[in-house]
Design goal:
The chain is built from 15 helices and no strands. With 301 residues, the protein is mainly alpha-helical. The termini are far apart.
């Protein structure tokens, strides 16, 4: 009986060894994630990763990246533990920098850094590194980089990035968005209001059917009001009324421009208002930056 028991014990150990392969841990981790057992999934991902520590083969590198990506996703998507997710995404990028999982990790990490840590520079670094891998969504990522520079107030770099995007991805669906963002960035720089207006006009000429076209015309009116040409601004906004999705907003700007004109006539001498009333910023639903930074804070008031 003793030899039989020994044989059975050896077989049991052998079976346990087979079950403990990294691929098995990965599969159990995926199953646990699907079944909403995140803690168990994390244990299995850790076991898979530990089993691969001393393995330098190509296959092990692939599995290691999958284990780290899986664990990071559980922390973020299932448990909403941002700090832990950021740590594991960083570890994945460090250990498997050229893997497909690392590309995804950089994109997710950029968003976490932007939203949860307000680390815009860090987010730009991650997206820039992702772009070097020539991802299929390159145009979108480059546009995100340009938007981050706008958010930082680095309008010159924002302009440069939008120009690069248009040159690199001339047929991309993000070209009109980039022109809109470029025009807004240029308009924020001293002495370049006319250039910004020309860029908005270029967007309308090149993409007359773009949903951004009426918004570009609206922005052109604001630039003219900024320059003190309220009558021309009103003409522009009247034209905008034909296609703008928020005619009430446009009418509001027309009314205020007319009030400014009235205040500069004989009845309002010495009561000149500024051309562009910052106290009540524009509201815009644009996916593109949607206006000046001071407008964004109260965009939907």
């Amino acid at each position: 009986m003793r030899p039989l028991r020994l044989a059975l014990a050896v077989l049991a150990l052998a079976g346990a060894g087979c079950r403990d392969k990294p691929v098995d841990h990965l599969q159990r981790a995926r199953d646990a994630t699907f079944e909403k057992r995140p803690d168990e999934a994390l244990v299995e991902y850790r076991k898979a990763f530990d089993a691969l520590r001393m393995d330098s083969s190509t296959e092990a590198s692939v599995l290691r990246a999958r284990a780290l990506k899986g664990a990071a996703d559980v922390y973020w998507l299932e448990q909403r533990k941002v700090k832990e997710a950021v740590g594991v995404y960083r570890e994945l990028i460090q250990q498997c920098p050229d893997s497909p999982e690392a590309l995804d990790a950089r994109i997710i990490l950029a968003e976490l850094l932007r939203v949860h840590y307000r680390d815009l520079r860090g987010a730009i670094d991650q997206l820039t590194a992702a772009l070097k891998l020539n991802p299929p969504q390159g145009a979108e990522l480059h546009y995100q980089v340009a938007k981050l520079y706008f958010e930082l107030g680095d309008y010159q770099q924002c302009e440069l990035e939008t120009r690069r995007l248009i040159e690199r991805f001339p047929t991309s669906a993000f070209v009109d968005d980039s022109l809109f963002l470029q025009a807004q960035a240029v308009g924020m720089m001293e002495g370049r209001r006319q250039e910004a207006s020309r860029t908005f006009a270029d967007l309308r000429t090149r993409f007359p059917d773009s949903e951004l076209s009426p918004h570009a015309l609206f922005e052109m009116g604001k630039l003219r009001a900024d320059a003190g040409d309220n009558e021309k601004a009103i003409e522009t906004w009247v034209e905008t009324l034909k296609t703008h999705p928020d005619p009430t907003l446009v009418q509001d700007y027309i009314a205020r421009a007319r009030k400014r004109i009235a205040n500069t006539t004989a009845g309002g001498v010495g009561q000149r208002e500024v051309a562009f009333d910052r106290a009540r910023p524009a509201r815009s639903s644009l996916e593109a930056v949607g206006g000046r930074p001071e407008e964004a804070a109260t965009e939907h008031d």
